[in-house]
Amino acid sequence: MSDPRDQLKDIVSAGLAIDIFEAEESLALSRVIGNNAAEINKATFGAFFGSVQRIVGKHSILVVSRLYEPHNRRYSIRSIPAALEVLSEHADLLKIEQRHVINQKLQGSGLRSKDVAILSDKEATLLLVQHLERGLPQISQAHIDDLSRTLEGVKEVRDKTIAHHEIVDAGKKPSATYVELDQLLEYAKSFVGIVGAGYLSVMYGEGKDYFLTSDATRSSICLNRILVKAAVVEDKRFSHLPKE
Fold it and tell me: Which of 11, 64, 79, 228 is deepest in the core (most CB within 10 A)?
Protein backbone atom coordinates (compact mmCIF):
# COMPACT_ATOMS: atom_id res chain seq x y z
CA MET A 1 0.00 0.00 0.00
CA SER A 2 2.18 2.86 -1.31
CA ASP A 3 -0.34 5.69 -1.72
CA PRO A 4 -0.23 7.86 1.45
CA ARG A 5 -3.96 8.59 1.31
CA ASP A 6 -4.71 4.86 1.13
CA GLN A 7 -2.38 4.27 4.07
CA LEU A 8 -4.09 6.96 6.10
CA LYS A 9 -7.56 5.69 5.16
CA ASP A 10 -6.62 2.15 6.20
CA ILE A 11 -5.32 3.30 9.59
CA VAL A 12 -8.22 5.63 10.34
CA SER A 13 -11.22 3.83 8.83
CA ALA A 14 -10.17 0.18 9.18
CA GLY A 15 -8.35 0.64 12.48
CA LEU A 16 -8.92 3.63 14.74
CA ALA A 17 -12.62 4.17 14.05
CA ILE A 18 -13.36 0.48 14.64
CA ASP A 19 -11.34 0.34 17.85
CA ILE A 20 -13.07 3.46 19.20
CA PHE A 21 -16.45 1.94 18.34
CA GLU A 22 -15.63 -1.36 20.06
CA ALA A 23 -14.23 0.39 23.13
CA GLU A 24 -17.33 2.57 23.51
CA GLU A 25 -19.60 -0.42 22.92
CA SER A 26 -17.78 -2.49 25.56
CA LEU A 27 -17.82 0.33 28.09
CA ALA A 28 -21.53 0.96 27.52
CA LEU A 29 -22.34 -2.72 28.10
CA SER A 30 -20.19 -2.79 31.22
CA ARG A 31 -21.91 0.31 32.60
CA VAL A 32 -25.39 -1.17 32.14
CA ILE A 33 -24.33 -4.29 34.01
CA GLY A 34 -22.58 -2.33 36.75
CA ASN A 35 -25.45 0.11 37.22
CA ASN A 36 -27.89 -2.78 37.67
CA ALA A 37 -25.60 -5.15 39.58
CA ALA A 38 -27.80 -5.37 42.68
CA GLU A 39 -30.92 -6.26 40.69
CA ILE A 40 -29.01 -8.72 38.51
CA ASN A 41 -27.56 -10.51 41.52
CA LYS A 42 -30.96 -10.59 43.24
CA ALA A 43 -32.42 -12.27 40.12
CA THR A 44 -29.61 -14.89 40.33
CA PHE A 45 -28.04 -13.86 37.00
CA GLY A 46 -24.85 -12.55 38.57
CA ALA A 47 -22.59 -15.34 37.35
CA PHE A 48 -23.52 -14.79 33.71
CA PHE A 49 -23.47 -11.00 33.67
CA GLY A 50 -20.34 -10.91 35.81
CA SER A 51 -18.55 -12.97 33.16
CA VAL A 52 -19.84 -10.70 30.39
CA GLN A 53 -18.66 -7.62 32.27
CA ARG A 54 -15.23 -9.13 32.84
CA ILE A 55 -14.84 -10.03 29.14
CA VAL A 56 -15.97 -6.66 27.76
CA GLY A 57 -13.85 -4.90 30.38
CA LYS A 58 -10.71 -6.64 29.17
CA HIS A 59 -11.62 -5.93 25.55
CA SER A 60 -12.08 -2.21 26.19
CA ILE A 61 -8.62 -2.00 27.77
CA LEU A 62 -7.03 -3.87 24.88
CA VAL A 63 -8.55 -1.70 22.14
CA VAL A 64 -7.94 1.59 23.95
CA SER A 65 -4.30 0.60 24.51
CA ARG A 66 -3.66 -0.26 20.88
CA LEU A 67 -5.01 3.11 19.74
CA TYR A 68 -1.78 4.54 21.14
CA GLU A 69 0.65 1.79 20.14
CA PRO A 70 3.94 3.40 19.02
CA HIS A 71 4.79 3.28 15.33
CA ASN A 72 7.14 0.42 14.45
CA ARG A 73 8.97 0.33 11.12
CA ARG A 74 9.30 -3.47 11.22
CA TYR A 75 5.58 -4.04 10.77
CA SER A 76 2.49 -2.02 9.93
CA ILE A 77 -0.01 -1.20 12.67
CA ARG A 78 -3.16 0.89 12.86
CA SER A 79 -2.63 3.41 15.66
CA ILE A 80 -2.61 7.15 16.20
CA PRO A 81 1.22 7.35 16.21
CA ALA A 82 1.26 5.38 12.93
CA ALA A 83 -1.21 7.84 11.38
CA LEU A 84 0.92 10.77 12.56
CA GLU A 85 3.93 9.13 10.92
CA VAL A 86 2.09 8.95 7.58
CA LEU A 87 1.05 12.60 7.87
CA SER A 88 4.56 13.70 8.75
CA GLU A 89 6.48 11.61 6.20
CA HIS A 90 4.11 12.29 3.30
CA ALA A 91 3.04 15.86 4.00
CA ASP A 92 4.22 16.87 0.52
CA LEU A 93 1.99 14.26 -1.15
CA LEU A 94 -1.17 14.39 0.95
CA LYS A 95 -3.92 16.67 -0.29
CA ILE A 96 -6.09 18.36 2.30
CA GLU A 97 -9.58 17.64 0.99
CA GLN A 98 -11.52 19.73 3.51
CA ARG A 99 -9.22 22.67 4.14
CA HIS A 100 -11.66 24.52 6.41
CA VAL A 101 -11.47 21.65 8.95
CA ILE A 102 -7.69 21.85 9.19
CA ASN A 103 -7.70 25.66 9.17
CA GLN A 104 -10.17 25.72 12.05
CA LYS A 105 -8.01 23.34 14.09
CA LEU A 106 -4.85 25.34 13.43
CA GLN A 107 -6.59 28.57 14.41
CA GLY A 108 -7.72 26.86 17.60
CA SER A 109 -4.07 26.12 18.36
CA GLY A 110 -3.29 29.84 18.41
CA LEU A 111 -2.41 30.70 14.82
CA ARG A 112 -3.98 33.73 13.17
CA SER A 113 -6.55 33.04 10.44
CA LYS A 114 -4.71 35.16 7.89
CA ASP A 115 -1.48 33.22 8.52
CA VAL A 116 -3.26 29.88 8.23
CA ALA A 117 -4.97 30.90 4.99
CA ILE A 118 -1.68 31.31 3.09
CA LEU A 119 -0.17 27.99 4.15
CA SER A 120 0.44 25.28 1.56
CA ASP A 121 -1.09 21.86 2.20
CA LYS A 122 2.33 20.57 3.22
CA GLU A 123 2.93 23.42 5.66
CA ALA A 124 -0.56 23.07 7.14
CA THR A 125 -0.12 19.31 7.56
CA LEU A 126 3.23 19.66 9.33
CA LEU A 127 1.81 22.28 11.68
CA LEU A 128 -1.20 20.05 12.37
CA VAL A 129 1.13 17.15 13.21
CA GLN A 130 3.01 19.35 15.67
CA HIS A 131 -0.25 20.42 17.30
CA LEU A 132 -1.61 16.86 17.55
CA GLU A 133 1.68 15.52 18.91
CA ARG A 134 1.67 18.12 21.69
CA GLY A 135 -1.56 16.65 23.02
CA LEU A 136 -0.75 13.02 22.27
CA PRO A 137 -0.55 10.82 25.40
CA GLN A 138 2.88 9.17 25.51
CA ILE A 139 4.41 6.86 28.10
CA SER A 140 7.63 8.88 27.99
CA GLN A 141 5.68 11.94 29.19
CA ALA A 142 3.94 10.17 32.08
CA HIS A 143 6.02 12.03 34.67
CA ILE A 144 4.73 15.46 33.55
CA ASP A 145 1.41 14.92 31.78
CA ASP A 146 -1.85 13.67 33.32
CA LEU A 147 -3.23 12.02 30.18
CA SER A 148 0.09 10.29 29.52
CA ARG A 149 0.04 9.04 33.10
CA THR A 150 -3.45 7.67 32.45
CA LEU A 151 -2.21 5.87 29.33
CA GLU A 152 0.71 4.43 31.30
CA GLY A 153 -1.73 3.02 33.85
CA VAL A 154 -4.03 1.50 31.21
CA LYS A 155 -1.10 -0.11 29.41
CA GLU A 156 0.16 -1.51 32.70
CA VAL A 157 -3.21 -3.22 33.17
CA ARG A 158 -3.01 -4.60 29.65
CA ASP A 159 0.57 -5.84 29.99
CA LYS A 160 0.39 -7.27 33.51
CA THR A 161 -3.11 -8.76 33.66
CA ILE A 162 -4.36 -9.29 30.09
CA ALA A 163 -1.57 -9.69 27.52
CA HIS A 164 0.60 -11.48 30.10
CA HIS A 165 -0.56 -13.33 33.20
CA GLU A 166 2.03 -11.75 35.44
CA ILE A 167 2.17 -12.72 39.09
CA VAL A 168 1.13 -9.58 40.93
CA ASP A 169 0.13 -9.14 44.57
CA ALA A 170 -3.63 -8.65 44.83
CA GLY A 171 -3.14 -5.35 46.63
CA LYS A 172 -0.84 -4.04 43.89
CA LYS A 173 -2.86 -5.25 40.92
CA PRO A 174 -3.26 -2.36 38.44
CA SER A 175 -6.72 -1.26 37.36
CA ALA A 176 -8.31 1.16 34.90
CA THR A 177 -11.47 3.18 35.53
CA TYR A 178 -14.25 4.16 33.13
CA VAL A 179 -13.17 7.78 33.49
CA GLU A 180 -9.59 7.02 32.49
CA LEU A 181 -10.64 5.04 29.42
CA ASP A 182 -13.11 7.78 28.45
CA GLN A 183 -10.35 10.39 28.66
CA LEU A 184 -8.14 8.45 26.26
CA LEU A 185 -11.08 7.87 23.92
CA GLU A 186 -11.81 11.60 23.81
CA TYR A 187 -8.40 12.37 22.31
CA ALA A 188 -8.75 9.47 19.86
CA LYS A 189 -12.21 10.64 18.73
CA SER A 190 -10.92 14.16 18.21
CA PHE A 191 -7.98 12.83 16.18
CA VAL A 192 -10.17 10.66 13.97
CA GLY A 193 -12.65 13.50 13.52
CA ILE A 194 -10.00 15.95 12.31
CA VAL A 195 -7.94 13.60 10.13
CA GLY A 196 -10.94 11.74 8.74
CA ALA A 197 -12.67 14.95 7.64
CA GLY A 198 -9.58 16.88 6.58
CA TYR A 199 -7.78 14.25 4.51
CA LEU A 200 -10.41 11.61 3.67
CA SER A 201 -13.65 13.63 3.50
CA VAL A 202 -15.15 11.14 5.99
CA MET A 203 -17.16 12.88 8.69
CA TYR A 204 -16.86 11.19 12.07
CA GLY A 205 -17.70 14.21 14.17
CA GLU A 206 -15.73 15.28 17.21
CA GLY A 207 -16.01 15.20 21.00
CA LYS A 208 -19.61 14.86 22.21
CA ASP A 209 -20.72 15.13 18.58
CA TYR A 210 -18.75 12.06 17.50
CA PHE A 211 -21.30 10.37 15.25
CA LEU A 212 -20.53 6.71 15.97
CA THR A 213 -20.97 7.01 19.74
CA SER A 214 -24.74 6.62 19.48
CA ASP A 215 -24.29 3.52 17.29
CA ALA A 216 -21.91 2.04 19.85
CA THR A 217 -24.59 2.25 22.55
CA ARG A 218 -27.18 0.22 20.62
CA SER A 219 -26.17 -3.10 22.12
CA SER A 220 -26.30 -1.68 25.64
CA ILE A 221 -29.80 -0.30 24.94
CA CYS A 222 -30.81 -3.79 23.80
CA LEU A 223 -29.31 -5.26 26.97
CA ASN A 224 -31.31 -2.84 29.09
CA ARG A 225 -34.50 -3.87 27.26
CA ILE A 226 -33.72 -7.53 27.94
CA LEU A 227 -33.33 -6.79 31.65
CA VAL A 228 -36.65 -4.95 31.65
CA LYS A 229 -38.48 -7.72 29.76
CA ALA A 230 -37.03 -10.32 32.12
CA ALA A 231 -38.35 -8.23 35.02
CA VAL A 232 -34.84 -7.92 36.43
CA VAL A 233 -34.98 -4.12 36.45
CA GLU A 234 -37.76 -1.57 36.31
CA ASP A 235 -38.49 0.29 33.08
CA LYS A 236 -37.12 3.71 34.05
CA ARG A 237 -39.23 5.43 31.41
CA PHE A 238 -42.26 4.87 33.64
CA SER A 239 -40.60 4.92 37.07
CA HIS A 240 -42.01 8.40 37.78
CA LEU A 241 -45.60 7.16 37.51
CA PRO A 242 -47.50 6.12 40.67
CA LYS A 243 -47.70 2.40 41.16
CA GLU A 244 -51.14 0.75 41.29
Answer: 64
- CA–CA distances in Å: residue 184 to residues 53, 98, 126, 176: 20, 26, 23, 11
Cα–Cα dist 87/12, whole Å:
12
Cα-only R_g, the chain: 21
Q: What is the largest CA-CA distance in the chain?
A: 71
- Using an 8 Å Cβ cutoff, are 68 and 80 in contact? yes
List Cβ neighbours of 240 (8 Å cut-off, separation of 6 or more): none
**b (16+ CB within 10 A) / e for 141-164:** ebeebebbbbbbbbbbbbebbeee
Residue 6, pLDDT > 90, answer yes
- Of the pLDDT bands very low, low, confident and very high (cuts 50, 70, 90), residue 240 is very low
State whether residue 235 is helix, strand or coil. Answer: coil
Quote the CA–CA distance of 173 and 210 in Å, as a whole number. 33
What is the sign of the dihedral through the CA atoms of 211, 216, 220 and 225? positive
